[in-house]
Write a structure and sequence with these properties.
Helix content is 47%, strand content 12%. By secondary structure, the chain is an alpha/beta fold. Helix 1 crosses helix 6, helix 2 crosses helix 3 and helix 4 runs antiparallel to helix 5.
């Protein structure tokens, strides 16, 4: 599970990680909430969490995959707890939050806005979320100076270290 603020590079790093891991599947939580108009209500939040948990459980149950990679903003403990509570299949959790400097995050988001990938309000929202990752009990990886490939390689190397007794 890979969290981080919007624009930090979660999706791109996860796609690189997927290429490094045999028998892997990747789910981007944003895909489960790709609606127009985008609405955050209690009903839509519950629906998205149910959908994500359903897909993650399906992937975990499927013998074709050894690795399930999931990314989403995941900026609050309650989101982590709620999502993990819904997982019914056995798993070994490897969790990391991708972070970067506010300046790097702003630059990345402004590039996305110029490319018409994000709306201008994403900058303030994402910058407001950035400090919330300090309060999580999840390993943090500063990707300010890392390419997505280097971030994926670091995640994989750290995961391998966690697996060894």
């Amino acid at each position: 599970m890979i969290g981080g603020p919007m624009g930090v590079g979660k999706t791109t790093a996860c796609r690189q990680l997927q290429q490094l891991l045999d028998r892997s599947v990747f789910l981007d939580g944003d895909w489960c909430w790709d609606a127009h108009p985008f609405q955050v209500t209690e009903e839509t939040r519950e629906m998205v969490l149910e959908n994500i948990a359903f897909l993650l459980n399906s992937f975990l149950r499927c013998s074709a995959y050894d690795h399930v990679i999931f990314c989403w903003v995941l900026h609050r403990r309650e989101i982590w707890a709620d999502l993990l509570r819904r997982l019914t299949e056995p798993y070994a959790l490897r969790a990391v939050s991708l972070v970067c400097t506010p300046e790097a995050l702003r630059a990345r988001l402004e590039g996305d806005i110029r490319a018409v990938v994000r709306q201008p309000d994403a900058v303030d929202r994402s910058l407001a979320y950035l400090p919330l990752y300090d309060a999580l009990d999840v390993r943090r990886l500063d990707v300010t100076d890392l390419t997505p490939r280097a971030a994926a390689e670091r995640i994989l190397a750290d995961t391998e270290k966690e697996r060894k007794p």
